[in-house]
Amino acid sequence: MLLEPAGYPTRFGHLPRWAGEPLKLLEEGAKLGSSFGLRLGRRAVVGYSPQWNRMLLSDLETFRSGGSFSSLTPYLSGGIITADVPEHRSRRQALDPSFHAKAVRGLRERLQEALQALLPRGEFEARAWASQVALTALNVAYFDARFPLPELAAFLAPLNRAFPAPLLPRPLRFASARHRTAQMRAEGHGMAAHLPPEEVLVGLAAGYDTTAHTLAWALWHAANYPQWHTPEGDLLLIKETLRLYPPGFVGSRRAGRGFEFAGKSFPAGVWVLYSSYLTHRDKSQWERPLEFNPLRFTGRIPAWGYLPFGGGERICLGMHFAQMVLEAALSLFGPLQALRGDPSPKPLLTLAPRGELWLRVRAKRP
Ligand code: HEM
User: Fold this and answer.
1) Full domain range(s) for residue 139
2) Protein residue with its CA nearest to atom 18 in ligand 1
3) Neighbours of 11 (CB within 10 A)
4) Rounded to the nearest whole angstrom, what is the distance from the C-alpha of residue 43 to the centroid of ligand 1?
5) CATH number, domain containing residue 339
6) For residue 1, is it within any domain?
7) Cut 0.85: pTM above it
8) Exposure of 247 by Cβ count < 10 A (0-12 exposed, 13-18 middle, 19+ buried)?
9) Which of 13, 54, 67, 305 could form a disulfide with 254, with the two C-beta atoms 3.0–4.6 Å apart?
């Protein structure tokens, strides 16, 4: 048996704490060992060592996405995200060409133009602005910027709210998003013209709050560590932001069969979790892990120790796109000043900055 952090002595033992304070629960569990148990209505096992990450992310037969946490929200329970091998592989092969680095570079100019129009002056709140950027970027990529933005914002808004908002079924919202996507497809706009509609909807959901929250944090750190906010430093600053604040702080699978790890056996059916948040803050992987120091990305990165986009065959489909959006958005700004805010991480469906982040634009980047 694995050790467990404190919970209630019932089958639902850790569920209330998981819903309210998952980071604290994970951190408490991590002190018990590099893998530990949770009772979330079903037995769950969490690990964060590189060996654990490699096992979970490489063995797609054993560690299945169907029945994982993604299946619990209507936004992520479709398309590629909950498909499993062998179907996952063929779906992924069909999607990859639209998202590889070269295809994404082709979108950069259009995106930069669209972002210029959003450029704030004077004081602005980074979380709200970053959400506009993420929506606009997804709109450019998927729909040639033709999807009415308020409609897109309304469809995706529940992803940014506290539980249970992202988990509730929303048949009307989904029906109208599907209808609009079908219209975009028929009119031949953007990637929606050739991708299956369910892949468009899960791509929007997977790419929205993740990109928005990362950008808000990156802007905050660009203001607080101006020595890194340079054309050469921005990429390292983004990597370090994603290390300390990985929006996808925990990834989940369902064990399709029993498995063994480090001499312990686990039965089929358990939830199997990895946590980029714990891995990225693990002292045995990273020196002074709580320090914000982009310099560490000029050196060796621990194998299976840095997973803001997951890893293996299921690595984030939108990784190159997200990186391009983040770099393009940061490159709009010259020096920034941090005014007030609370950047500590707050767990929603993904990690988000806890408070508003107020910044002032001091000058445009030449
Ligand atoms: C900074 C922004 C982003 C972060 C941090 C992020 C993070 C992640 C992570 C951690 C995974 C793996 C989940 C797992 O192993 O269970 C993932 C998968 C995925 N992401 Fe992203 N993501 C980002 C942006 C995007 C964007 C912009 C898109 C789409 C345009 C996207 C689409 C997807 C899809 C479709 C998957 C599932 C891939 C598969 O199962 O084969 N993501 N993402």
Assistant:
1) 42-361
2) 316
3) 11
4) 25
5) 1.10.630.10
6) no
7) yes
8) buried
9) 67
